[in-house]
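Appendix B, Record 12. Input sequence as logged:
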Amino acid sequence: MPKPNRSDPTPITSALLREWGPPGTGNGTVLVVGGARRAPGAVLLSGIAALRTGAVTLQLAVVERHASALGLAVPEALVVGLPEADSGAVSRDAADVLADLVADADAVVLGPGLTDVDETGALLEKLLPLVAEDTPVVLDAFALGAIGTHPELAEPVHGRLLLTPNTVEAAYLLGRPEDPVEDFVDAAVEIAERHRAVVSLMGVVADPGGQVWRDATGHVGLATSGSGDVLAGLVGGLLACAVDPARAACWAGHAHAMAGQRLVPRTGLTGMLARELLDEVPLVLVELRMG
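Logged structural output:
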């Protein structure tokens, strides 16, 4: 089958972001849900990233066994403990604990540190209908695998959904998990149309209406473990500041990539840690705002 014609993506540059205007100051609450038994740090990375982009209030939800430690590690956040399945995953019953939080949040990030696609799918089925009708939702990690298998799970948040897949997750979202994703532009556009969501995939941002942007600032160092959790949190923080989802994805992706560029002289491309990106983001945003 021939590929559909795609217009050339608009380059994401500092000049374009300045033309759009600054992303604004924080005025909202971000809720990050994830942190299974084996991956509590993913929520920490996403949560701090959300604060770095301007969110005022941060709420973190992880399995109960990690809640106290996370509260000490991120004293700026309200931390909620969630029930844990036998597998160590966040239980589907966590929806009962999270009901009031998702109803009041200005942006919700679901996925960092989640494990067990079946348990995650059952959690999304119960939780997404409880999100306030005007609240944007970012899905990452195992949450993407869940909707890749069962796209109908995301229907309650269609039109305000933002997806941040890696190439493996993108293949699931395309319904072709056995096929490697090679053309990021075509893949992002197809995923955006298929799931009625804004998509941020390897520097490409696509919206359901067919608009496409591409950022060439990134480098291989951003493949470091936890980097995707940082990106998801950056997007969530910008969405809480009432930034349009596509522009939030462009701003977040560029800030993420530029933070990585700033680290290269100190860490090289192969010694970069995701947590180090967090301290660079505010400096990048200041530079972008000041021109």
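DSSP finds eleven helices and ten strands in the chain.
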